[in-house]
Specification:
With 72 residues, this protein is mostly beta strands. It has a domain of 39 residues. It contains one helix and four strands; from the N terminus they run E-E-E-E-H. The protein has a four-stranded antiparallel beta sheet with strand order 1-2-3-4. The protein binds zinc ion (ZN).
Length: 72
């Protein structure tokens, strides 16, 4: 038996998720979700899985997070 993807791949191109704008789907999959190539408001680009975008887990490239003291 082949696992069939249910429904069509969701097209979120051009949609904004916080600071990220979905540009195009990549061929990558993460946890069964299409990984989208996104651009952040700050100009960085990042690949984010669809579910992370729509569930709001990932809304920036990482730039929007408060800086924590990072020890080097
Ligand atoms: Zn950013």
């Amino acid at each position: 038996m082949k696992p069939k993807p249910r429904g069509r791949a969701r097209d979120i191109s051009g949609q904004h998720f916080n600071k990220l704008t979905a540009l195009y789907p990549t061929l990558k999959r993460q946890y069964g979700y299409v990984v989208w190539h996104c651009r952040c408001d700050c100009g960085n680009e990042k690949d984010v899985a669809l579910n992370c975008l729509i569930q709001g887990h990932t809304g920036t490239c990482g730039c929007g997070q408060r800086r924590r003291a990072i020890r080097r």
